[in-house]
Amino acid sequence: MKLSNKNLLCITGPTASGKSAATAAIANRWPIEIINVDSASIYKDMDIGTAKPSEEERSLVHHHLLDIRDPSESYSAAQFRTDVIKLVYEIKARGNTPVLCGGTMLYYKALKEGLSQLPSADMAVRQRIDEEAKLKGWPAMHKLLESFDPNAAKRLAPNDSQRIQRAIEIYLSTGKTMTQWIMENPPEPGHDMNLIFLSLEPKERSELHNRIAHRYRSMIEMGLVEEVKKLYKRGDLNINMPSIRCVGYRQIWQHIQGDYNLETAIERAIAATRQLAKRQLTWLRSYPERNVINCLGDNVEAKVINFASTFMKNK
Predict the structure, then answer these.
(1) pLDDT one-digit tens code per residue, 90-127
(2) Taking the CB of the first residue and of the last residue of the chain, which one, N or C, has fewer CB atoms within 10 A?
(3) Domains annotated on the chain, with CATH
(4) Is the pTM of this model over 0.85?
């Protein structure tokens, strides 16, 4: 692999695969700044359930795109793309190396391929879709999407609530399908950066599932329920907002509002996190050029450092 100073190292993989630890190991050896690629850790006051780096970790290496939005606000993949391109040049101007770390694959796609221009969100339509989904379930809404936009439905899992909702919303708001919008509004021109993916992936998914369950129950012990209660008591947030829809938060929110007991919420959150990991792996496999390290294998940190050393020598 030929590397150049236009290459941008991206540490990615499914949730609970050890991305943060791998990036921290790189930061211990080279002058890097970390750009977070995570659609949940952008929110303030959402720390435990997003597994944000500690204050000590942040004091050792500069992290970007953490705590940049209030939970009442939104943040799009297009905004992420704009912010990252700006940050990359600023970090390099300081003589440091930018390293991306995270598992929000739509953000990587936006940065790598650009984005089509889509209509703005229609919150009233979105709420109607959510109410119907609550009665019928998201697999039924996926069937509805399939009836008018089969191409979009084919790309989405039956329980991918956020993207199913968005595709239906676009059609109901504009009369045109998401597929039509994308065809009529091709992605904007790309930049000159070359994304190099170092992907931490499990050979055995069952062990990753065990990790996910253990980590989420640890978050509960650390005070995740109390963290969500504080958000709930604010009074200006609701379950339709992107922040509260985050995996692991939505389920506790539903417990707090009385939909089901805590243990059911925990089990649902773990199941949703496993589904998230499955979607992340599906996205990653669409990039055959990625460099894969078994996140459950031996000497993971040494393998990460070995790969990063080649990158740092040729940056």
Answers:
(1) 999 999 999 999 999 999 999 988 877 778 888 889 88
(2) N
(3) 7-115+187-313 (3.40.50.300), 123-184 (1.10.20.140)
(4) no
Q: Calculate the average pLDDT of the chain.
A: 92
Separation CA 295–CA 202 (nearest Å) = 5
pLDDT tens for 6-32 read 889 999 999 999 999 999 999 999 999
